[in-house]
Amino acid sequence: MTKFVCKTKNFPKVSIIGTGNVGKTLAQRIVERNLADVCLLDIVEGLPQGIALDLMEARGLELHTRNVVGTNNYEDTANSDVVVITAGIARKPGMSREDLLKINAKIVTEATQKCVNFSPNALYLIITNPLDVMTYLVWKTTNLATSKVVGMAGVLDSTRLQAFIAMELGVSFNDVQGMVLGGHGDLMLPLPRYCTVSGIPITELMDKETINRLIQRTRDGGAEIVKLLKTGSAFYAPASSAYYMIESVLLNQSRLLPAAVYLQGEYGLTDIFLGVPCRLGYCGVEAVLEINLTDEETQALHDSARSVRDNINLALTELNIFKRG
Ligand code: TXD
Question: What's the average model confidence in pLDDT over 152-162?
């Protein structure tokens, strides 16, 4: 065969740190939708290589053109457009998100620092729990701009609420919009006033009792799945939520979505990452939106922020993490 040297178009590159359930499902979604090449990294030798090879062997049948590589070496993540941090341990039954704090803080900050050496301009999408705390620690322990660090939780919590609303009303999932703000924990803040079915607020379609039941189910959404699975936690909807955000970045869609972003006075909160609506495009977080909240909602958001801040302080002191000036 005659071989020709040909310069191919550079496709975007996404590196995923942690090749567990969320990482490998996200990789599959990204390549099978032809969005980007993927580099999978894990601490376990052979795991990312095996998953990458498996996905490449499916390529001829799935008819996509993206490459997947698996590695244990951070050099291979170089020049990524997006770096996704899913490394850590997953929540087990009976374990609160806060229990994960100490172990995951070390894993996440060390992994991110290594990635930043090779991809200083990437957008860093944090997934590891406890989400809002991990996102803050990533920013605090690197020189990344606030626009380049974002945490995934609001899209997941909102899509769960959307699913529960659609199932309750028997309407198409596609017609439902949900909006969940606050930390990714028991104090998250689902906002029924901003949840709609084809533009109609759900407060017009359901009584208060039903709405409260769906809100509680959303708050318990992660735990409900942990309880059913017995080992591990949810990963299909989390991977879809991360994909949704990455697509908005790489295709420069500037979607308006809830995510953990750095607040500098918005909602009366400073120096914290918390779930609020933002605009996400190629440059990262392009804008943080301040929507109208009632006094009660503002109070609930501040309660959620307080719990996140307590855990941030715990991580900073217990792990003796260097405070960025
Ligand atoms: O809404 C959200 N943000 C979340 C968060 C939704 C779902 C899952 N959420 C959290 O993401 C979950 O609580 C975990 O903290 C992470 C990853 O969840 P996943 O379900 O993928 O966990 P797994 O299957 O246990 O995978 C974790 C992988 C596993 O392969 C480990 O070997 C790897 O992380 N790991 C590491 N990789 C690289 N470097 C280090 N140090 C390391 N430590 C563990």
Answer: 97
